[in-house]
Write a structure and sequence with these properties.
By secondary structure, the protein is mainly α. It is about 60% helix and about 5% strand. The chain is built from 13 helices and two strands; from the N terminus they run H-E-E-H-H-H-H-H-H-H-H-H-H-H-H. A hairpin with a 2-residue loop joins strand 1 and strand 2. It is globular and about 50 Å long.
Length: about 250
């Protein structure tokens, strides 16, 4: 029964994909419809999602979620997507807010990407802020949620996200910033790392330690609001010294 439900959902997603991509992937010329190669690639991602995901992961530097401190995963969820465990790949509230802004400007000015959407964007898509690209991102996020658990999605996200200063993925970031493995991270370090992906060139402590520290405060406060930390623990983490691998 579960298999049939998942199959039905996939068929619905495929139907939506064909409808959404029609205007961008098909065009008329002399009364004939031509099929662009890009559309085949998009459909291929949906049909063979697991294969495409596996091809996109760097297994040599991969870290399982069991090797990640809970403080890190909690920090990322709190600051990046606090409804991560309740939505199904997209956040309707965030989309509604962003849609109002985008309608006001007549173009995509503000995103409302969930962790799942950011993951598929990092794996498969360009950074273009167009409605077609956002539609494809949404469909892939829905399909991702059908195939993988929340823990698997969060695990893949942390292994593929850019942490600034040339560090891709959690393993490289831990080594590059703190000369540690992920399981050795303390709360202040985990909170600083969790804040970097929002703007890696800005919040890298090697680029601007003061801004990185301010961002760490934002992450810790978000963890308190989300119920992951007591306020006194967050305040204590804010004043703990941080020792970077390269001072």
């Amino acid at each position: 029964m579960i298999f049939l439900i998942r199959l039905l959902k996939r068929l619905i997603i495929l139907a939506i994909l064909f409808a959404v991509m029609f205007c961008g992937a098909y065009y008329f010329s002399g009364g004939t419809i031509f099929f662009e190669p890009a559309t085949a690639l998009r459909i291929n991602r949906i049909i063979f999602l697991e294969r495409e995901v596996n091809n996109s992961l760097d297994r040599d530097n991969y870290v399982s979620i069991d090797e990640m401190p809970e403080s890190l995963t909690q920090a990322v969820v709190a600051v990046e997507d606090n409804r991560f465990y309740t939505h199904h790949g997209f956040d309707p509230e965030g989309i509604g807010r962003a849609a109002l802004v985008n309608l006001q400007y007549g173009e995509v000015k503000e995103g409302a990407s969930t962790i799942t959407q950011q993951l598929v964007k990092n794996m498969f898509l360009s950074q273009d802020q167009t409605y077609g690209r956002k539609a494809e991102e949404l469909l892939l996020a829905l399909d991702m949620e059908l195939h993988y658990s929340k823990e698997q999605i969060l695990e893949m996200y942390l292994n593929t996200i850019y942490f600034g200063s040339g560090f891709y993925g959690l393993k490289d970031a831990c080594k590059g910033y703190f000369d540690k493995t992920p399981d050795q991270l303390a709360l202040p370090e985990a909170a600083m790392l969790a804040g970097i992906p929002n703007a890696p060139s800005v919040y890298s402590p090697y680029e601007n330690f003061k801004l990185a520290k301010q961002r760490q405060f934002i992450v810790l406060d978000a963890m308190v609001r989300a119920g992951y930390l007591r306020e006194n623990i967050a305040e204590d983490a804010k004043i703990k010294p941080l020792y970077l691998a390269h001072q």
